[in-house]
Write a structure and sequence with these properties.
The chain is about 40% helix and about 20% strand. With about 425 residues, it is of the alpha+beta class. An 8-stranded mixed β-sheet has the order 1-9-10-11-14-8-7-2. It has a 3-stranded antiparallel β-sheet with strand order 3-5-4. Strand 4 and strand 5 form a beta hairpin. The two termini are about 55 Å apart. The structure holds one RNA strand of 88 nucleotides.
RNA sequence: GGAAGCGUGGCAGAGCGGCCGAAUGCACUCGCCUUGAAAGCGAGAGACACGAGAGUGUCCGGGGGUUCGAAUCCCUCCGCUUCCGCCA
């Protein structure tokens, strides 16, 4: 959520920036709502100040003058109520409007609205030469580790069942990611709920605008949402808290299941593990000094890249176009791994700087030793999703004899070096 | 799910319906003292909103009510603790 004053400040150039992501900001409406709200607050404050004066007067009043003062105080109460109602109404309208305004994309991002407009930053690793590559679904079935028909039987389309060494590989990947980030990159591991409340989802920006992307549960009169990423619970750990500025940056990680409705993605990636309703992911979240958020983004990107590199997977980093970044983001890099079966790079990680946008929504404040107050900047990145990494490991590791070689760094976790056809 | 109790500032803990944004202690900040530190002494210090500012207002778990006036009385919801039931 933005500070309306900042949006209204011509120096912010908010209208132009938001137009780059196809959002048309109505400055006039904003100004009217803010001005009206502030006026209502002032009116209420003045009435209340008067009421307070009257109360004191009543206390010291003689029996004769008392009834008149009490009567005036009664009247003042009505005027307070009126101003409060107006304030409440305008405040609600203002908040409702502010909550649906996306973050301002950074000027450094390229123009454009799709992944085609992303700019390649660098490539890493050697694209493996695979003759007649199989995709991960064919590989998984031949290896006897993937059972999609049974997944469909259990839960319908867009789910996955892994078996034997496939399940072990999934477990190994997650443990490998977590160990790397906690031991080498200094992240604190958390175990957090996968079901969260509406305010929590609003804090990171999934709500109110993107409810159709989420799975929602309801028991009795209690409503909870399944998280689409651990970003939601990890970032909201500090919702409505004040952090000591000196303690930043805070670096958190968690492995959680992630649930996505994938509404509107009909026909896209319908095969296999690429796009499913439920998957496991290790997420990285950083709370940082807003003045340093872009540097911190590079650090975070490095942590995510380190995982892909440790697995020896060929990948590239792209800078997303201004119109393609997420609602809450102001700057995003994607890491894309090479998928031999598709002959192209596919997204495996998204690393974003949210500035203070999420912190304002969630109320993540900072206080420095000298008393200076502000909001933290939040960043997050996948580090990494287990399913899509498994796809890359299978596809990039496939051998001419139909086996798949496990990346050496992972072997201590799997206990086996190769997957053989069943 | 049933019964009882409790929810006050970073923590602990006071608080006759107006003198309470709230005593006191600890922690904290700054001085003095000290070679340095501790102790001691002195001073300061909550958050949020509106306002150019002076300042004004709000906040004692949330919401509602009584009253000219509520941390203090009433209702309700939520949370915590203890006992019972159930359960992984």
């Amino acid at each position: 959520m933005h500070d309306p004053r900042v949006l209204l400040d011509p120096a912010t150039d908010a209208v132009r920036k938001l137009a780059r992501r196809g959002y048309s900001l109505d400055l006039e409406r904003l100004e009217k709502l803010l001005g009206g709200r502030n006026a209502a607050i002032q009116k209420g404050d003045e009435s209340r100040a008067e009421a307070n004066r009257l109360q004191k007067a009543v206390k010291g009043a003689s029996p004769e003058e008392r009834p008149a003062l009490v009567e005036k105080a009664r009247e003042m109460k009505a005027s307070i109520t009126l101003a409060e109602e107006e304030h409440r109404e305008l405040e609600a309208q203002l908040t409702e409007y502010l909550l649906e305004i996306p973050n301002l994309p950074a000027d450094e991002l390229p123009d454009g609205a799709s992944d085609e407009d992303a700019v390649e930053v660098r490539t890493w690793g050697e694209i493996p030469a695979v003759e007649n590559p199989l995709d991960h679904v064919d590989l998984g079935e031949k290896l006897g580790i993937l059972d999609l028909p049974r997944a469909t039987k259990l839960s319908g389309p867009r789910f996955a069942v892994l078996k034997g060494r496939g399940a072990a590989l999934e477990r190994a990947l997650a443990r490998f990611f977590l160990d790397l980030h906690t031991e080498r990159h200094g992240y604190t591991e958390w175990s957090v709920p996968a079901l969260v409340t509406r305010p929590t989802m609003t804090g990171t920006g999934q709500l109110p605008k993107f409810e159709q992307d989420l799975f929602r549960t309801e028991v009795a009169d209690r409503e909870l949402f399944l998280i689409p990423t651990a970003e939601v619970p990890l970032t909201n750990l500090h919702a409505r808290e004040t952090l000591a500025a000196e303690e930043l940056p805070l670096a958190y990680t968690a492995q959680t299941p992630c649930f996505r409705s994938e509404a509107g993605s009909y026909g896209k990636d319908t095969r296999g593990l690429i796009r499913v309703h439920e998957f496991s992911k290790v997420e990285l979240v950083r709370f940082v000094d807003p003045a340093r958020s872009r540097e911190e983004l590079e650090v975070l990107l490095g942590h995510a890249e380190a995982v892909v590199q440790a697995l020896g997977l060929a990948y590239r980093v792209v800078r997303l176009a201004a119109g393609d970044i997420g609602f809450s983001a102001e700057y995003t890099y994607d890491i894309e791994v090479w998928l031999p079966s598709q002959g192209r790079y596919r997204e495996i990680s998204s690393v974003s700087d949210f500035g203070t946008f999420q912190a304002r929504r969630a109320g993540i404040r900072t206080k420095a030793k000298d008393g200076a107050r502000g909001f933290a900047a939040t960043l997050n990145g996948s580090g990494l999703p287990v399913g899509r990494t498994l796809v890359a490991v299978l596809e990039q590791g496939q051998q001419p004899d139909g086996s798949v070689r496990i990346p050496p760094a992972l072997v201590p976790y799997t206990g086996f070096e190769v997957l053989e056809p069943a």
